[in-house]
Design goal:
about 500 residues; alpha/beta; Archaeosine Trna-guanine Transglycosylase, Chain: A, domain 4; 3 domains; globular
Length: about 500
C-alpha cells in the first residue's frame, strides 16, 4: 500500500481526503499528492486533496462521512474543527448486491479439533460455567469457583477451567420487561454455548429471576451436566459453597471425558468486534478480518456482525447485501428502534466516536461505521437477530446490540459464538471467557508497543509487506489453530471473567 516516499493513501478515487501514514509537518509535501500540509498533522488523520465548499460533502471510502463547516482548501487537516455531521440521503436498495456464495465442497472444507456436544454444536474450549441468577448470588458464585484448589483442577487436563459468570442484574426489574428477557436469554445462551461442557446455576431464593423460573422460561433442564443451587434453601453461604464444591467434583470427571476431535470449519461461529479504533482500522484490520470472514463462510462457517449504533451511516451497504427483502427491512427496523430508544433517554444514536477514536483520526460516527462494516466481508446478509438470540443460520448474520464492546460480545457469545475476533487501533485489552479472542492490531507501532496483548499485526498492510487478502488468509488459519486449542494473548494473561456484561435495559425498580 505504501512506498518509501508515500505519506498518505487515498482509499477510493472519489475521496476528497487521504489518510496520513505518518506524521507530516506544516508546509511539507504529502506524497504522492500535490498538496502541502497547512499545519502539523498526526498520523492516521485526514488531509484534504481538493477544494471542498462550505456545507459540501466530504467523502472517504467513496462515501459521505460528513460536511465541511467552512471552505476547506487542499492540504488542510480535516477533522472535528472543520467537519460536522447532519442527516443525508442514503440509497437503501435492498438486496441489489446480493450474490451467490461460492462454497468450498464439503470434502475440502478446512478443519479444526473441537469438542462435539450432544446437540451437534462444537466447542473450541471446554469450561465448566457457574452462573449467578441474580447479583445477590454473585459473590457466592465466585466463592464456589475459588473453593476448587488449582492442584485439584489440574487433575482434569481436558477441562479449560471453572468459570464464574456474575452480573449486577436479576431483581428489581420489570417482570415482563425487555431487561429480564435479555438477561434470561443471555444466561441461557451461556449455559448452552458449545464452549461450556457443564453448568451450575446459583440463585439466592427470593429474587425476581428465580432459578426455577429461569430454567422453565429458557428450556433449561437440570441433569448430569446442569445443576442448580439456591443459597437460602442450602442454609447460607458456607453450606452453599460446600454443596457447590461437591457438585464441581462430580462435574469435573464428566467434562474431562470430552476430547477434541477433527471437525469441519462449518461448526465455527465467529463474533466480530472492533474497539479502541483508529483511522487505520478501516483500511487494515477490519477489511483483513472481512477477507477472513469471506473464507470462513465459503467453508460453511458463520460470522456475527453487531454494534448497531456503530453501523449507523453504513447500514445502506449492508441492506444492499441482504438475502431477502425481509432481512433488509429487519435491519432498518433496528435503526428505527435505536432512534426512539436514544431519544427517550435524551441521547443521540451518533454520540460516537469516543475521545480515543478522535485522537486516532476518526471524526464522525459515519466514518467509524464505514470502516467497521468492512469486517463483515462481502457475502450476503442472511439474518437479523435480537440481542442474545440463538444463531440458527450459517453465513453472515447481524445481531442488534449496543456499541459497548463488552455488552456486544456478551450478546454474541450468548447467541452461540465460539470464537471472537477483535480489531483495535488504540490497544484495547480484554478477553471473553469461555470464548477465545484473537486481537488484530491495525498499526505496527501499537502492535510493537503492546505485543503481549496483540495477536496479529495488520499494520503490515500499510507497509505493503502484506495485502488485505494475504492477511485475511493468515487470520483464518490462526482462527483454526486457536479453535484447536492454541491460546490467544488475552487467554495467556487470564482475561475473560469480568467481561461478562449482559445488556442492562429498562427500569430499575
Amino acid at each position: 500500500m505504501s512506498s518509501a516516499k508515500t505519506k498518505a493513501v487515498q482509499i477510493h478515487e472519489a475521496d476528497d481526503v487521504a489518510i496520513l501514514l505518518q506524521e507530516v509537518k506544516a508546509g511539507e509535501r504529502v506524497q504522492p499528492y500535490k498538496v502541502h500540509a497547512d499545519r502539523d498533522i498526526p498520523p492516521a488523520h485526514k488531509i484534504a486533496l481538493c477544494d471542498i465548499p462550505a456545507d459540501g460533502p466530504v467523502r472517504k471510502y467513496g462515501q459521505v462521512i460528513g460536511f465541511a463547516r467552512e471552505k476547506i482548501l487542499p492540504g488542510a487537516h480535516v477533522h472535528s474543527h472543520n467537519l460536522y455531521l447532519k442527516s443525508f440521503a442514503r440509497d437503501y436498495a435492498i438486496g441489489v448486491e446480493a450474490q451467490t456464495t461460492q462454497f468450498v465442497p464439503e470434502e475440502q472444507q478446512a478443519a479444526f479439533n473441537g469438542f462435539l456436544r450432544q446437540n451437534g454444536s462444537v466447542g473450541t474450549r471446554n469450561y465448566i460455567g457457574i452462573i449467578s441468577s441474580v447479583s445477590c448470588s454473585a459473590s457466592v458464585t465466585r466463592f464456589v469457583a475459588d473453593a476448587l484448589r488449582p492442584e485439584e483442577q489440574a487433575l482434569y487436563p481436558n477441562v479449560d477451567g471453572v468459570l464464574p459468570l456474575v452480573h449486577s442484574l436479576g431483581c428489581c426489574m420489570t417482570p415482563d420487561g425487555e431487561g429480564l428477557q435479555f438477561l434470561q436469554k443471555t444466561l441461557a445462551g451461556y449455559a448452552d454455548n458449545p464452549n461450556i461442557g457443564a453448568v451450575l446455576v446459583i440463585g439466592l431464593g427470593c429474587e425476581l429471576n428465580l432459578v426455577e423460573d429461569l430454567c422453565t422460561a429458557m428450556n433449561l433442564f437440570p441433569g448430569p451436566r446442569l445443576k442448580t443451587l439456591e443459597i437460602q434453601d442450602s442454609g447460607g453461604t458456607r453450606k452453599t459453597v460446600e454443596a457447590g464444591l461437591e457438585i464441581l467434583r462430580t462435574l469435573l470427571p464428566l467434562v474431562n471425558m470430552d476430547h477434541r476431535q477433527p471437525m469441519s470449519a462449518r461448526h465455527l461461529t465467529l463474533g466480530l468486534e472492533c474497539g479502541g479504533s483508529d483511522a487505520y482500522s478501516g483500511i487494515t484490520a477490519n477489511p483483513a478480518l472481512g477477507a477472513a470472514v469471506d473464507i470462513l463462510i465459503r467453508h460453511g462457517g458463520t460470522a456475527i456482525l453487531s454494534e448497531t449504533p456503530e453501523i449507523f451511516g453504513a447500514e445502506h451497504l449492508l441492506v444492499r447485501r441482504a438475502e431477502s427483502e425481509g432481512v433488509g427491512r429487519r435491519l432498518l427496523d433496528c435503526f428505527t428502534w435505536w432512534q426512539a430508544y436514544t431519544e427517550k433517554n435524551k441521547a443521540v444514536i451518533d454520540n460516537n466516536p469516543t475521545p480515543g477514536n478522535k485522537a486516532g483520526g476518526i471524526t464522525s460516527i459515519v466514518e467509524k461505521s464505514l470502516g467497521a462494516v468492512s469486517k463483515s466481508g462481502t457475502t450476503n446478509l442472511r439474518a437479523v437477530l435480537g440481542y442474545a438470540d440463538k444463531v440458527k443460520e450459517s453465513g453472515l448474520v447481524f445481531m442488534n446490540t449496543p456499541g459497548y464492546d463488552l455488552v456486544s460480545i456478551t450478546g454474541m457469545i450468548a447467541g452461540g459464538a465460539n470464537l471472537v475476533c477483535f480489531t483495535t487501533g488504540r490497544g484495547t485489552v480484554c478477553g471473553f471467557k469461555p470464548v477465545p479472542t484473537l486481537k488484530l492490531a491495525t498499526n505496527s507501532d501499537m502492535f510493537t508497543h503492546m505485543q503481549e496483548d496483540m495477536d496479529i499485526d495488520c499494520g503490515r498492510i500499510l507497509t505493503g509487506s502484506e495485502t488485505i487478502q494475504s492477511m485475511g488468509q493468515r487470520i483464518f488459519e490462526d482462527l483454526l489453530e486457536i479453535a484447536s486449542g492454541r491460546q490467544t494473548r488475552s487467554e495467556a494473561q487470564n482475561f475473560g471473567e469480568t467481561e461478562f456484561v449482559p445488556w442492562h435495559i429498562g427500569a430499575v425498580m
